[in-house]
Design a protein that fits this description.
Blueprint: E1 2-10, H1 14-28, E2 30-34, E3 38-40, E4 51-60, H2 64-78, E5 94-100, E6 105-106, E7 111-112, H3 121-130, H4 143-148, E8 156-157, H5 159-172
Antiparallel strand pairs: 1-4, 1-5, 2-4, 3-4, 3-8, 6-7
């Protein structure tokens, strides 16, 4: 079983869509942990609704490309995600492989670990909560160190919502 970390975000009905995505994800993988979720400002489009962002840890036998295309993209589609050339478009759900064991993959279609971890606090901080001592392949810095370089800024923790997500996870286990 591979240990994988999935970035989860939504700014269209995020309360419902993130819960639904985690439920669907638990049908095809084993969800083992959920980070704190945060409300964050949208990148490049300040007029859009704010996002909910966090990270789920999963265990899976699916290889990376199959996980991305057959599981994550299927869940996004089922929840009404319409992909377009506009990478800043609002979305019902966004599911991205951030880390897949200690694999390093760089292809046109799949890059692991996600190169944006070091640049985006809404990825680094939740990942550091789950695996602070982990040093992503291709870097020389533990996640705790990367996360410490960020301030929470406009990130607001969703403590009660996170508790609800974790309770949902406990009930499914």
């Amino acid at each position: 079983m591979a240990r994988v970390f999935i970035g989860i975000g939504s700014n269209i009905d995020p309360d419902r869509n993130i819960r639904a995505a985690l439920r669907l994800l638990s049908h095809v993988t084993r969800v083992t942990a959920i980070s704190t979720f945060y409300v964050t400002d949208p990148e490049g489009r300040p007029e859009q609704p704010r996002y909910y962002n966090g990270v789920a840890e999963i265990e899976t036998d699916l290889p990376p490309a199959q996980l991305k295309h057959d599981a994550l993209r299927h869940i996004e589609s089922e929840l009404g995600r319409n992909r377009s050339d506009d990478k800043h478009a609002p979305r019902t759900i966004d599911l991205d492989i951030l880390i897949y064991d200690d694999l390093i993959i760089s292809s046109d279609d799949l890059v692991i670990p996600d190169p944006e971890i070091a640049n985006r606090p809404y990825l680094a901080i939740p990942l550091a909560e789950l695996i602070p001592e982990f040093t992503p392949p291709g870097t020389n810095q533990r996640l705790a160190e990367s996360a410490a370089e960020f301030t929470f800024g406009d990130m607001e923790p969703l403590s009660e919502y996170t508790k609800l997500l974790r309770e949902d996870l406990r009930q499914r286990s």
